Amino acid sequence: MLDFMQKDRTFLAEIDSQIQAFTAQISELEDAISHLREAQQLALDRLNSYKYPVLSLPDEMVCEIFIRFLPPYPDPSPLVGLLSPTTLTHVCRRWREIALATPDLWKAIDLIPPDCLSQISSTRSIDPIPLNSRHQTRARALGSLWIKRSGSHPLSIRAVDLDNPSFPIFSTLLPHRGRLEHLTLHLRSGLPLLKFTTDPLPRLRSLNLWFQNGLTRPVVLTDVPLLRVVVLGDVRVPSIALPWAQLTSLTLRSVYPDHIMRILRQSANLIECTLLFWAAEEPARGDREPNVLLPRLQTLVVELESEVVVEFFQHLVAPSLRHLEAPDAFFLWGGGSSSSESLHIFITKSGCKLHKLYITEL
Predict the structure, then answer these.
(1) What is the pLDDT of residues 271-280, one digit of tens each?
(2) Cβ(246)–Cβ(269) under 8 Å?
(3) Which residues lie closer than 8 Å to 55 by C-beta, 6 or more apart?
(4) E strand or H helix at 32, and its extent?
(5) pLDDT classification of 83: cutoffs 50, 70, 90
């Protein structure tokens, strides 16, 4: 019995020794943890006292940086993606508050899907533009939200396929027609545009229209006092009436030659003119006045079929022309004249002094 008790006493002494050793280790660990926590707090205090330079900028300067981040106005910003102002709202709370309180960020709206944009920008594209219902619904919702965020600022809108019943963006635009400054529309027909002809567009400065199926009903848009820049595609004159005399820049695509001549005769104040991709089929010719005089025209870019460009330049007089871009067919008119002779005839007739000449090949 004495041996058993002695063993227990020895065992307890060993346990007590281990407890003391562990207690000493725990004390050392607690001291180490305490030192680490002190170092951690010092690091946190330094971080909390640090201000990122961009966050120290005044709101006015941040607004200016945001505006320069986007495509220059009136080029529209995409609804989503890197160049969308929506991206700025996802960085931090302060940036979101600033972006949402800056109407300039939301006044240029692109409602055209990226996969359709290259097709629309092509000078020879007349194929149907596909739009899925998901994009239509989202574009309309985001477009309405952006218009609301833009406050009372002028608007730059680019949209496609507006006469699709499932994409009634016109119902969103019409209440804000007085703010429209730059408008680009790719339409299946001219029917939706008729809704814009009943009231004036007092701020409209540029208009870009492409009619996939031409104009089936006349469109008259004359109460646009600030309109100066027009781009038209697949238009049949006199189906559309614009204040041609007040325009300074005009681009015409896929339009009959006779219609072009009639428009130009009414556009005496043009400074820039681009004529691209004439219609393949032409109606009977009956409008044949001797010359088309464009006294202020300085820049002319022409891409025509060879048999059309000949007659066009024979009837054109542009005394202020400085920049000419024309196909090589222009230099073959006049019964096989040399290029220098053809150019000399046109310059002599117009009395212009060219500064830049580009010869293109169709």
Answers:
(1) 999 998 665 5
(2) yes
(3) 94
(4) helix 2-49
(5) confident
Contact criterion met (CB below 8 Å) for 307 and 338: no
- Nearest of 265, 182, 273, 276 to residue 233 by alpha carbon: 276
And the tokens for 292?
């088309």
CB atoms within 10 A of CB 97: 12
The domain limits of the chain are 243-280+290-362
pLDDT digits (tens, 9 = 90+) for 322-359: 999 988 766 665 444 555 567 788 889 999 999 999 88
As a whole number of angstroms, the distance between CA 254 and CA 244 comes to 18
CA–CA separation, 286 vs 317, rounded Å? Answer: 20
Of all residues in the chain, the percent with pLDDT exceeding 70 is 74
Per-residue tokens: 27:
């004390």
Q: Cα–Cα distance between 116 and 248 in angstroms, integer? A: 29
Prediction pTM value: 0.76
pLDDT digits (tens, 9 = 90+) for 205-258: 999 988 776 666 677 888 899 999 999 887 665 678 899 999 999 999 877 777
Q: Which residues contact 116 (CB under 8 A, 6 or more apart)?
A: 129, 130, 131, 160
Tokens representing 6?
Answer: 């002695």
238, two tokens: 């006199």
Residue 174 has which token pair?
């019409």
Rounded distance between C-alpha atoms, residue 256 and residue 139, angstroms:
34
Strands 219-220 and 155-160: unpaired
Instruction: Report d(CA 184, CA 162) in Å as an integer.
Output: 11
